[in-house]
Amino acid sequence: MSLFKYGRYSGYLRPISYLIDLSIINAIAILYLLGGKEPFIFSAFISVGWVLLSIYSKFYEVYRYTRPVNILSLVVKQLILFLLFVFAFSGLYHDLKIYPRPIVKYTLFCFSLIIIFKFAIYYLLQKYRVSFGGNYRSTVIFGLNKKTLALENFFNKNPEYGYLHQKTYNFKNKNLSLSECFDFILDEKIDEIYCSISELTNSQIADIVDFADNNLKILKFIPDSKEIYSKRLRYEYYDYIPILTLRTIPLEDSANTIIKRGFDILFSSIIIVFILSWLTPLIAIFIKLESKGPVFFKQSRNGFNYREFDCYKFRSMTPNEDANLYQATRGDQRVTKVGRFIRKTSIDELPQFFNVLFGDMSVVGPRPHMVSHTNMYAKKIDKFMVRHFVKPGITGLAQVSGFRGEVESDKDIIGRVKYDIFYIENWSLLLDIKIIAQTFVNAVRGEDKAY
């Protein structure tokens, strides 16, 4: 088999990607940024920096099954890190007189070209697999059930991913032996083995692991119905003791925390300066004209690590003693006319950008509940407290997925928790931007449960 026939042995793809990207950032620097100055120091510095940053951000860990949205997420992360890196260089070497605006333009131009080349390679490989049958991997599946049939169907219906499925073994057949399967794998030069955990015994799994290791075969497991196997487990060693972490939270990474906090400060500052600065006096006038009471409504809610904080909103109800106990319901007589409008358009939530600026909240995250509701749901809803692993948000994935507003049944809060946990475990800056965009669209369109 040639080096390029099977994806497992396509060892040139990543070095080629490195070479293209390094050529882009160095060529554009020489032609645009340096202006005829000696390029050696700058080129050496950013080339080494680029490689180190890409290793840290996993920029080149793009596989045949990686989705385009995940590639965009990697690009955004690498862009921010590289921009900060070039700024750091300009601060260290004043003699080159590299200024902030040209640095930003240089970085954006570089990444525009890098995105083009990265997606060109991604889609050209898909075309190559479909049209010429190259860069593929042969697979077998151990175990026959709904999940393995779904995987087999995926392999057969998506040739652009480059999987050539050869056989699915049913271990409910008592006449089937592992040695027979192993002979087939060796004879047909199978690259990857997929095992259904629920269909195999511990001794069979041990034999398959040994076979895969001894014959250089890639071995992957399909989770069964047991919940622990469907998690993104992190494998670590404490001395020589292997430890599995059940839940990985991207925002526990210090770099991700800095990126999210920086975005929160920038976004909230823009809203406060360009929108709240003139909108607040107008809303205050309308609120005061209709009913007596304060312009802002303050309510204690639970945030990061279950800590209580004061959450601010424009007042949308007549002052009442039940405001901290009961959510607004459809046709609620406590809601004023002005309140009905600002709740429908989500304008009442805008003061929470001050909470974001102060660090109590984030622009995107699980919506915080009033303290009385948090205590109630914590006792009756499984995994409800997981939401407090990150800062609460003005908007969130649950809210743009149909779970905003009043909790009318346990189904509503269970759905909200499910989306919140997915967000916590799969956070990315690109996901935040997508949620913000969808929130804006929903606010303009109007939502049924915004009352």
UniProtKB/TrEMBL annotation:
EC numbers for this chain: 2.7.8.31
Statement: the UniProt record of this protein carries the keyword Transferase: yes
Superkingdom of origin organism: Bacteria
Keyword line: Membrane, Transferase, Transmembrane, Transmembrane helix
Membrane-crossing residue ranges in chain numbering: 12-34, 40-59, 71-94, 106-125, 265-287
GO CC annotation, single: membrane
Subcellular location: Membrane
Domain Bacterial sugar transferase: 260-443
Pfam families (UniProt xref): Bac_transf
Family annotation (PANTHER family): COLANIC BIOSYNTHESIS UDP-GLUCOSE LIPID CARRIER TRANSFERASE, UNDECAPRENYL-PHOSPHATE N-ACETYLGALACTOSAMINYL 1-PHOSPHATE TRANSFERASE-RELATED
NCBIfam families registered for this protein in UniProt: EPS_sugtrans, WcaJ_sugtrans
Protein family membership: Belongs to the bacterial sugar transferase family.
Name of the molecule in the record: Undecaprenyl-phosphate glucose phosphotransferase
Organism: Winogradskyella luteola
